[in-house]
Amino acid sequence: MCIVFRTLRASRRILPCSIPWIHFLPIGTIPPGQRSRLILVGAFRTAPLVGTEIFSSRIKNFNMPRSPTSSEDEMAQSFSDYSVESESDSSKEETIYDTIRATAEKPSSRMEDSQSNILVIRIIIPDLQQTKCIRFNPEASVWVAKQRILCTLNQSLKDVLNYGLFQPESNGRDGKFLDEERLLREYPQPVNKGVPSLEFRYKKRVYRQFNLDEKHLAKLHTKANLKKFMDHVHHLSVEKMTKMLDRGLDPNYHDLESGETPLTLAAQLDNTVEVIKALKNGGAHLDFRAKDGMTALHKAARAKNQVALKTLLELGASPNYKDSCGLTPLYHTAVVGGDPFCCELLLHEHATVSCKDENGWQEIHQACRYGHVQHLEHLLFYGADMCAQNASGNTALHICALYNQESCARVLLFRGANKEIKNYNSQSPFQALQENAFPKDSEFQVPGIA
């Protein structure tokens, strides 16, 4: 007798099954951000398969507070799936809101009790015609404040990741959008004029000119002109770009075909230093995201474009910008591998190590999964935690065992990694190596179960 396991992707329906002893994981038990997958879990009539994370961790530790995935392979795929799956705009927006609500930091009780640690700001949301007074921690980043605002909304905003906090002009200072990775306290608010105000609005070019001709701007932003501008970026026509920008074109928009912004497109091309500078000087926001949720810095890291990455950082881009899944450019470099220069450059520019995806995978896990030894060395040098465990309790050494990455395992052991740590299936890395004998197909058979 054998048991057949099937992995169902991108399905929100419970499918009929002719095998009575296979049970489905109810949708209600799956967090909103995880509902794009359903896992079939077999109910064993005999003892479960001891030691294999692929199966028994879902049976033995069913009540463990972790992601409802069934195997290491599927958890690793969580990163790649989100960028290639075709989803409707509405489902993407729903997923983004779920991610934001799941990762938003809750105010600590200490902050609630201490008035000195509270910053009250009136948030004006023009698109929803709403005004809210919200308490913030001044030591929190603008990104965290943005998440806090989104969690209070009772209406959805389209392309919500490209909304930002805008500080109106005052006391002779020009209005500007707050950089997402800076702290709130770095933007001083007037204290003698009542409760300070910020606007939460869609990121657009901030024009310095007065008395703008709205009709002229509307004619400039036709579909034909926007497509022409993308062509100029693609062909590195800096002079033609500059002329259109000087006329008032806003470079913060998405191409209808590719979903790229002019800046994210330039970040993936060669020899684009002048193009990137022209876009920045023309009002492009460095943290404006493409349709897939990535900033130009993410695109440069994934394309292994060292020159573009360095240029963006020199222009003020933060190495810790988050994409729609909350992942940083450093996390992406650990996945794509290649020349470790991009990884080293981000770390040198104070990129935060130990960014987690929805299944608890960090950069060190991904580097070990794909066998990127040099990336692993850089991560360890800058303080990556060798004992960090993902949602299944696996350390980087477990990942090396599961994916047969001997070189990475040697590096970890040489650095003093603890080889006695057990995952949530009570496996040490050595035990995981011994029992990792099943194929990672979406449908396969396990012989020998009587």
TrEMBL record:
<dbReference type="Pfam" id="PF12796">
    <property type="entry name" value="Ank_2"/>
</dbReference>
<dbReference type="InterPro" id="IPR036770">
    <property type="entry name" value="Ankyrin_rpt-contain_sf"/>
</dbReference>
<dbReference type="InterPro" id="IPR051569">
    <property type="entry name" value="SHANK"/>
</dbReference>
<dbReference type="GO" id="GO:0043197">
    <property type="term" value="C:dendritic spine"/>
</dbReference>
<dbReference type="Pfam" id="PF16511">
    <property type="entry name" value="FERM_f0"/>
</dbReference>
<dbReference type="GO" id="GO:0030160">
    <property type="term" value="F:synaptic receptor adaptor activity"/>
</dbReference>
<protein>
    <recommendedName>
        <fullName>Talin N-terminal F0 domain-containing protein</fullName>
    </recommendedName>
</protein>
<dbReference type="InterPro" id="IPR032425">
    <property type="entry name" value="FERM_f0"/>
</dbReference>
<feature type="domain" description="Talin N-terminal F0">
    <location>
        <begin position="119"/>
        <end position="188"/>
    </location>
</feature>
<dbReference type="GO" id="GO:0045211">
    <property type="term" value="C:postsynaptic membrane"/>
</dbReference>
<feature type="repeat" description="ANK">
    <location>
        <begin position="292"/>
        <end position="324"/>
    </location>
</feature>
<feature type="repeat" description="ANK">
    <location>
        <begin position="258"/>
        <end position="291"/>
    </location>
</feature>
<feature type="repeat" description="ANK">
    <location>
        <begin position="392"/>
        <end position="424"/>
    </location>
</feature>
<keyword id="KW-0040">ANK repeat</keyword>
<feature type="region of interest" description="Disordered">
    <location>
        <begin position="65"/>
        <end position="95"/>
    </location>
</feature>
<dbReference type="GO" id="GO:0035255">
    <property type="term" value="F:ionotropic glutamate receptor binding"/>
</dbReference>
<dbReference type="InterPro" id="IPR002110">
    <property type="entry name" value="Ankyrin_rpt"/>
</dbReference>
<dbReference type="GO" id="GO:0014069">
    <property type="term" value="C:postsynaptic density"/>
</dbReference>
<feature type="repeat" description="ANK">
    <location>
        <begin position="359"/>
        <end position="391"/>
    </location>
</feature>
